[in-house]
Amino acid sequence: MTEDRLLLATTNRGKIRELKKSLRGLPLKIESLDKYPEFGRYRETGRTFEANSRGKSLFYSRRYRGLVLAEDSGLEVEALGGQPGVYSARLSGPRATDEKNIRKLLRVLAGVPRPRRRARFVCVVSLARQGKIVKCFKGRVSGYILTEPDGRNGFGYDPVFYYPPLRKSFARLTAEEKNRVSHRGRALKKVRSFLARRWLQPPG
User: Fold this and answer.
1) CA distance 51 to 145
2) How many domains are there within the chain?
3) Is 58 helix (H, G, I), strand (E, B) or coil?
4) Catalytic residue among 4, 34, 72, 150
5) Domain range enclosing 116
6) Distance between CA 49 and CA 35 in Å, rounded?
């Protein structure tokens, strides 16, 4: 059955921009969660990105007539034992902002040498429909945490995440460059391929 509606289960404007750009051209009516306040809000309690991604997609797929795409992503820093992980967006507390999170991360890593500042972004995207998981997709990208912010593009920890192959922080990449190499971009390439080949094919 061809599904022509897809709900992006997020209200994060930065994520919505990246998601829509990555899925552009597919025969889908793409909507975001801010259009459906009556759906309520899913409380993320999972200990892994996959658990939060799956839980979120299932929650909204029971309320939405169509496919639901939910993702959970974050930063894992080697010197911090993989933290902040699923707490990336809330690192600086309940009133966290990107700026506060970056300041706290840099404060915690003060004095840590570059070899131990290795980090990776991780993303898990889940597709669900009518209370059932259709498929999950993963993407990862490795780099280093800088000692100070560099660049104004992107969002989240992009200004302090240095990507060695391009010799730039993520916040200095164009949207096109970032979508090609980022954790979210890599996961969404798999999503796009799956939708185009397996889900949106017209009946034979």
Assistant:
1) 26
2) 1
3) helix
4) 72
5) 5-199
6) 25
